[in-house]
Amino acid sequence: MKATIWHNPKCGTSRKTLAILENLSKVDLTVVEYLKDPPSREKLAQLFADAGMTPVEGLRLRGTDAEERGLPQADADTILDAMVADPILINRPLVETEKGVALCRPQDEVLKLL
């Protein structure tokens, strides 16, 4: 099974999710450090749609200036544009497999995708 994780190595939950994926021999894993290689606006919109989430549900508030920028009250297009411009606003880790996409918080959420 193929899996892609949008990963931030500084995030404990992201590291734990990655460890789960790395320890499964049946997973062909792609790791994308999204702060260095952010997803396109189209990919981000697709990930949220496939996860059954709105962009506001995928917005990272902790450790960002999202609240000060009024992003929790903004429309989806504004949030997606902000995430593309400043990928730290993307909550993580997002994992995509052929079974779907999930925001893996807590890390055990990844098991539903395998």
Tell me what the structure shows.
It is a single chain. The protein is α+β, with helices and mostly antiparallel strands and 114 residues long. It has helices at 12-22, 41-51, 76-85, and strands at 2-7, 28-33, 94-97, 100-103. A 4-stranded mixed sheet has the order 2-1-3-4. The protein is globular, with a radius of gyration of 13 Å. 32% of the residues are buried.
Estimate percent helicity: 25-40%
- Average of the residue pLDDT scores: 96
Element pattern in H and E: EHEHHEE
Helix/strand/pairing category: alpha+beta
End-to-end CA span? 8 Å
Question: What's the Cα radius of gyration?
Answer: 13 Å
Overall number of strands: 4
What is the helix tally? 3
Strand percentage lies at 15-25%
Could you name the ranges where pLDDT drops below 50 across 5 or more consecutive residues?
none
Give the strand order, joined by hyphens, for the main sheet.
Answer: 2-1-3-4
Largest sheet data: 4 strands, mixed
- Specify the overall morphology: globular
Write the layout of secondary structure elements.
Elements: E1 2-7, H1 12-22, E2 28-33, H2 41-51, H3 76-85, E3 94-97, E4 100-103
Parallel strand pairs: 1-2
Antiparallel strand pairs: 1-3, 3-4
Descriptive labels:
3 helices; four-stranded mixed beta sheet; 18% strand; 114 residues; alpha+beta
What's this entry about, in short?
This protein has 3 helices and 4 strands; from the N terminus they run βαβααββ.
